[in-house]
Amino acid sequence: MDRDASTPPAQKGGASSSAYLHPYACFRCRKSFKRASRANAVLTCPDCGGPSIGLTRKFKPPKRTDIKQWEKVEALVRHGFLFWSLGEPYPETLDQVTAFAQRHAGFIGRERAKRPDAYAQIEAALSDMSGTLK
Ligand SMILES: [Zn+2]
Q1: Using CA atoms, how far apart are residues 59 and 4, in angstroms rounded to an integer?
Q2: Exposure check for the chain: N or C terminus, fewer CB within 10 A?
Q3: How far is the CA of 49 from the centre of ligand 1 (A)?
Q4: Could you read off the pLDDT of 8-28 as tens digits, one per residue?
Q5: Distance, CA 59 to ligand 1 centroid (Å)?
């Protein structure tokens, strides 16, 4: 349904023009880059060397200068949301994240149970990142 056509291609980091590129988001740099595989839950950011989190192709990276939107994305990821389709739009503001997370707590619980290794990696990456945002 969602063609994802509005997302500009990644500027660097891959010669491949595959249509099946998966975004990884670095909250330290506030940017995303794409990789052909989402086999790793967490990859090293090519810019800062910090952790970046693999998200689904529904993720639309905010502008780098839009700190509020990046904070919202980080909050969603901290709640365990990796941007799957959930039958309702994702929250537009940081304020809406808590209620959204509560509505989908059951879903997130099942995802965590299904992919404990991936979530362990993501949580380690996020704790590594905490305190680095300025
Ligand atoms: Zn980075």
Answers
A1: 9
A2: N
A3: 6
A4: 555 454 444 556 899 999 999
A5: 17
